[in-house]
Amino acid sequence: MLLRPLTVFVGPSDTGKSYLSILIYALHQVLGGSSFHGYATIRRELAWTPHIRPSDLPAKLRGPVLEWLRRLHRDEKRAKLPSQMSDHFRVWLEQEAGLDAAITVELERCFGLESLDDLIRVGSTAGRACFELGVPSHGAGSPARYGCSLESSHIQVSCRIPELKPITARLHKYLSLRVLNDDVSDDWRLLQVWIRTFRAIHHSLVEGIPQAYYLPADRAGVMHSHQALVGTLIRDAASAGLHHAPNVPLLTGVFADFLSNLVEMTGATKRRSYGAKKACQLASRIEEDILNGEVRRDRSNPFYPSFTFQPKGWSKKLPLKRASSTVSELAPIALFLRHTVRPGDLLIIEEPEAHLHPAKQADLTVALARLVRAGFRLLVTTHSDWVLEALGNLVRLSELPAEARSKFADADCALTPEQVGVWLFDRTDEATSVKVRELALDRDTGLFPADWDDVQETLYNTGAQIHNQMQDLRQG
């Protein structure tokens, strides 16, 4: 599976769309550095490497690395990193960097589990999920790829880097003339190479992985009750030490992260960077086109965040809990754009069409496409035929010549086929397994062929049979 700028998961309920979305979110949290779990081992190594001794370095690498440094000193800029050194760091990343432990902890946190054993369905004899995250390279060479496989209660994470050319290019920048010079000891030069290599690996592997934000289903309920929920958690946490068995609820990590981002939103809007300004403009566009009003943080209470909605033309603001469910469901998208998310980030949204009229679902699809055009990356789960149909129109729109395209109101939101990926989650003949396959846009119908046609056909045939029976009764 290759995540696109706009990735859509569709299919029947209980087929693993949210499950895979959370797996992807957890992997981004570990690798992207936004979580304290992210590359903690590499950061520890960075702090440790200045104190290592020459005898700690692999003896078999001393000769090749010193020869490589001599070639660089002779201005051989194309001198390749010794294959032995590349292999050494590849093995270190795959086996010793602690990625498997970090992703295990993060998955338990995101799913709200005591142990990954609880992730397997009760009664199942086998369960397996595999996916791979590819990170674009910032130089010549292949991208870094991170794979995650979950089988029964065992999780295995591997980091595969086909080539270290991007790291080599960055490493060249870190190597000062003094490191390359002959007037220092070989041991000193080797130590500096190791320190700079760790630093180059960290930068090369972490940069390019976007920060991820997860907007779970039932956002309206959270927006209506988050103050009471946060207050309860704080009170229970304060009294936890006074009781032997405190009744503190265990939140899933995605829910806790969503709640935390809401609590930490500042009253003032940050407009210092172009990305922040662009995000605010897109938030205002969603409010204007879909919500017909403005969602804002109420600054009257500095301790608990509360949010208001001011319908267009109204002089007063409503507490968000008194606004419609449509407003409450979409308010987090506008708020995250205004206060948290920036172009380049990954925004995962479960069922954005919830509580929306079909016309508004189509409008929201256009708004999501506008986010993609602005540089945001989106992963969406949906059960809406309207969303898929609107998305198909936007993809077909991109194939029109510019002059013909300009006649449509949504011309600025057209997406190329390479920017969109729609994946169908469907049950196989075995009730315990699910098959995931990518849907190609049907050029004849202009639609992504999900399973909704079968539902429509079944309903039509049932209606026709009822009609025929009624006709027979009247004639009899």
Describe the structure.
The chain is an alpha/beta fold. It contains 16 helices and 12 strands. α11 (274-291) packs antiparallel against α12 and α11 (274-291) runs antiparallel to α13 (358-373). The longest helix is centred in the C-terminal third of the chain and has 24 residues, at 452-475. The radius of gyration is 27 Å and the shape is globular. It starts with 5 loop residues before the first strand and ends with a helix.
Structural class: alpha/beta
What sequence of helices (H) and strands (E) makes up the elements? EHHHHHEEEHHHEHHHEEEHEHEHHEEH
Percent helix: 40-55%
Largest sheet: 6 strands, mixed
List the helices and strands and how they pair.
Layout: E1 6-10, H1 17-31, H2 40-48, H3 59-73, H4 83-96, H5 99-111, E2 128-135, E3 144-151, E4 154-160, H6 165-174, H7 177-180, H8 186-206, E5 212-215, H9 219-239, H10 253-263, H11 274-291, E6 293-298, E7 306-311, E8 318-319, H12 325-339, E9 346-350, H13 358-373, E10 377-381, H14 385-397, H15 402-405, E11 420-427, E12 434-439, H16 452-475
Parallel strand pairs: 1-10, 1-11, 5-9, 9-10
Antiparallel strand pairs: 2-3, 3-4, 6-7, 7-8, 11-12
Helix pairs in contact: 1-5, 2-8, 5-10, 6-8, 9-12, 11-12, 11-13, 13-14
